[in-house]
Give the backbone structure.
Amino acid sequence: MAPVAGSVFAAVPQAVPVAVFQLTADFRADVDPRKVNLGVGAYRTDEGQPWVLPVVRKVERMIAEDTSLNHEYLPILGLPEFRANSSRIALGEDSPAIQENRVGGVQSLGGTGALRIGAEFLRRWYNGTTVTPVYISSPSWENHNSVFTDAGFKDIRTYRYWNGATRGLDIQGFLEDLEKAPEFSIFILHACAHNPTGTDPTQEQWKQIAAVMKRRFLFPFFDSAYQGFASGCLDRDAWAVRFFVSEGFELFCAQSFSKNFGLYNERVGNLTIVAKDADNVQRTLSQMEKIVRTTWSNPPSQGARIVATTLTSPELFAEWKGNVKTMADRVLLMRAELRSRLEALGTPGTWNHITEQIGMFSFTGLNSKQVLFLIKEKHIYLMASGRINMCGLTTKNLDYVASSIHEAVTKIQTPA
Ligand code: PMP
C-alpha cells in the first residue's frame, strides 16, 4: 500500500499520554509558588527533593574506584550475585526453597521488566496456551493490564479488591473471584503496599487466599515493588511471598529496587522463580535466556552492582535497612499529620484510612471532581483516582494541602 499523505507514519494515531507522567509535566509547567506534586510514585525528602540514599552514594564511590571492574557485557540472565541476593531478600535468609536449589533469578530492567519477561514466559510456556485468564486486582497499577496485553494475553480479567464504601479490602469478593476463576488462572498479587489503595490483606486473609489458590491450582505472580516501604521492615513486607513458598506453591515474584534503593532511573529489578525442583528451574531459566536475548540481550550493570554490593556486605546491608526505615518513617509521619489536620478542621467524612493504609500511597476517597478542583484551583497535583503520594507532603505544605482538601470536600460533595 502506498504511504498516505507522503509519510509512512501519516496513519499513526496519537497515543494517550501516560497519566502519571502527564501529571508531572503539568506540575512542572505550573508557575504557582504553592504548587504540590502528590502524583508520581517516588520518594521525596521533607524539602520536597529526590533522595540519593547515603548507602548508595557510598557504594557508587566504591564502584567508581574499583579498577577490577569494567564494562564488559553481563551474562544474559544478569549479575549472578545480584540475582542470588535479590531472591534471598524476597524469600528470606533461611529459605528452604533456596537451600533445595529450586529458586532462580533473572535480572531485569526494573520491576516492569521482570513483569514483562515473566508474562512473556507464561504466554509461551505456561499451561500450553495463551487463553489462560490473567486476573488483576480492581483497582491496580495501570501498567499490569498493558504489560500482559502486550505480552499477548487475550483474556485479562479483574478480581474484586477494594470496597469503596468501607475504604477497605473486599476480602469476600476477592475470595469469591478466586473460587470462580478457571483452574490454572494466573493471579497478579501485590506482595505488599498495594498500589494504589495502600491496603493489604492481613496474614489471616493471605492464608485464606492461599488456601483457595492451592485448591484451585491458581498461579501466583507476585509484584513486589515496595519491599520495606510498607512496614519499614524487609522481612515483614515479604511475609506473603514467603508464606506462599512455605505452602509449596510454584510462583513468580517480580522485584523492583526502584523505590527501596531510590534507583528509579537505573532500572534494577529481578524476577524470582520458585519451582518444585532444581531441574524445573534450570529449564525455565534456559527459556528465560531466549526471551531476554531478544528483549534487551543483557542487562545494565551499574544498578545491579550497587544492589549486590550492598546486599553482600553485612555493614552496608544494615546501613541500607536504616535508609529504608528513614523513608518508611517519614511516610508514617506524614500520614499521621495529614489525618490529624483533616480531623482538626472537621473535614466531612472519616480519615482513619489515611493512617491505616500503608506504603507510599494513600487512596484518599476524593472523587474526580474534587481532584480536578485541587489541581485547577489549588495547584495540588494528584491522580484522578484520588491516590496521593504521601512523600509529596512536607512539614511546609501540610497545612496548605489539608485546608485545600477540606475546601474541596466541603464545596464538592456530590459523587463524581
Ligand atoms: N509494580 C508496581 C505496583 C509499581 O507501583 C511499580 C512502579 N510504579 C512497578 C511495579 C514498576 O517498578 P519499576 O519502576 O522498577 O519498573
